[in-house]
Amino acid sequence: MKTIITGDRPTGKMHLGHYFGSIQNRVKMQYDYDTYILIADVQALTDNFDNPEKVRNSVRELALDYLASGIDPKHSHIYIQSLIPEVAELTVYFSNLVTVSRLYRNPTTKHEAGQKKDKFGESGETITYGFLGYPVSQAADITALDGDVVPVGEDQVPHIEQTREIARKFNSIYGETFKEPEAVLSETPRIKGLDGNEKMGKSLGNAIYLADNEAEITKKVMSAVTDPSKIKKDDPANPDICMVYYYHKLLKNENLDTVCSECNAGSRGCVACKKELIKVMLEFLEPIQERRKYYEEHPEEVEKILKEGTEAARARAKEVMQRVRKNMKLDYFE
Ligand code: SF4
To answer: How many angstroms does the Cα of residue 328 sit away from the middle of ligand 1?
Structure first.
């Protein structure tokens, strides 16, 4: 069985964008792969180093969202990054194999640096050494567990390419040690927000969280962007430019053809259409929220799952690091 390494930074609750963009795919893949799901608390600290409380609380929230979404601890190991010190050690060894200019050239890092309103080589005031080196620590995450496959969104492909480069360089210097992991593009495109934004995101204020209650969902759906040409209830409209229809489709409303034809014909009002979407969304989230509630009420089970997942990941990383130290001539007393 091939090994998948995947995961997220714990920075808050998961939303539908995460669910359709990555979690759903992991739930499917966990039965066919040896699955390791990383809660990247060390990486979360690159942006939140001054807010450890937020990161710690989010570790629990993330674990709850994974379990609620169908990640099955019998088939997946959910583990905490900071409890695998071998990854930190490997990051140090890898840091000698990557030039600073190569890190600057990573398009995803460049883009994220832009969002922080910084330009490489200019002020350098908001970019930390940890932020710039993030692709190196990600390479260590993947290779320390002998990962074969990394399911990613398009924006993460350059990071996996960098992982492959590092693994190749390491092998060429110290002898065959690592596999070159393969990036598998997530089948689902980026999920749009109800506000029409191309992306759903916490920071964009348009996220529908897996744990949202009825009142929260109602408020968000009722303010969704529809076809602006539809002014009156019986105006015909184009569902293809309406975010409500987009979500009817995403959530596989059985009534989709009717929504489309009634919208085209002007026999459906947007308020009724939104109310129907709220119902569909609540039905979709119901099993997820039921599982979440179960695990919220059984924190000892969540802790056990995290502990066992972390032990499994660490055992694997220890084996890999024995190989690394031997090949790097660092196995002094073995
Ligand atoms: Fe969108 Fe529904 Fe209104 Fe048509 S009727 S514009 S699909 S909300």
So the answer is: 62
